[in-house]
Amino acid sequence: MLIDLLKDLVSIDSSSKEGANEAVDFCAGWLKGQGLTVDVIENNGYKMLVSEIGSGEKTLIWNGHVDVVSGTPNQFFPEVHEGNLYGRGTADMKAGVAGMMCAFAELKDRDLGLKIQLQIVSDEEIGGLNCSGYLAKHGYRGDFVICAEPTQLGIGLQAKGSLRLDIEVSGKSAHGSRPWEGVNAIEKAYDIYRKIKDLPFTREHTPLYASPSLNLAKIKGGDVYNKVPDACLLSLDIRYLPTQTMEEIVEQIETVVGKNIHINMYSKPVNTEENDPYITLLRPIIEKNTKQEAVVFGQHGSADTIFFAAYGIPAIEFGPKGENWHGDRECVNLESVEVYQKMLVDFASEFILQK
After folding, report:
1. Would you list the DSSP string of 125-161?
2. By three-state DSSP, how is residue 223 classified?
3. Can you give the pTM of this predicted structure?
4. Which residues of the chain, if any, have pLDDT below 70?
């Protein structure tokens, strides 16, 4: 049932809003076919579903997305080769979604000591604001969140915050043949970038991260060859540590450029503690099922965990083994998908034993 479900999901080209909505509807139909009650919600044209089982004071959130990045036509015809399923979205993250759906259906008639809420969304790849962001804002929250991103069956415990900003740099125009009479705004912008790279925040580290990251994403200036550019726009993509704040980073950058900063977007980091009781519960389950020590790590990017972490809810990325997501040879290890489903069931069962 699990592998067939996964193949059906991968066969849906969900790289567009319409395709992702179709995938949500497919998941809703499958869950209803298993005797589950499903609510399909739409926000700004993006669909998501919510289904809940169990009862109790605690709520465990299982969150997964069915939207994918664009792929070649053949990637939506999944193929099995040497134990791996190849296709767009196999790893990121329809395998995790399929594992959650099957585990959810398996648990539906059990006397659970908690509530499990399954959320399947359609816009994670473009930021998640319309679905997971909407759900978290409107009270679809719990005590612990698992997002089924491909983590090689390890625990993505933390995630860096994201800060995208534009810096306006002014110069002085002059004839291109006499650049010494002007101030080249592009050269000035690059000098500013080098100074920002040397600010104190760039040298900080934590046990899970060697440093934040600073990417010179865009630089825009000049309009003709024979003129010294008098304006330049410098765009930076900064991924900052869970121990840092956006405010302190901006303050440091202002010491270099003043107030000529426009914050394009930012999101807070995920800072789930390694000694969180839910992590303490999950680690031995991973070790029992994989026969290996549970790997705990920090993600450099971010996922829909950010929307729940913003409310102080411990959230992790935890999913099957995959390779080349967003690439031409994206695949997932099928055995790991089966193990993943079992671990989700085992995790819920621990609450039954503790009830």
Report:
1. GGTSTTTHHHHHHTT---SEEEE----TTSEEEEE-E
2. coil
3. 0.89
4. 351-355
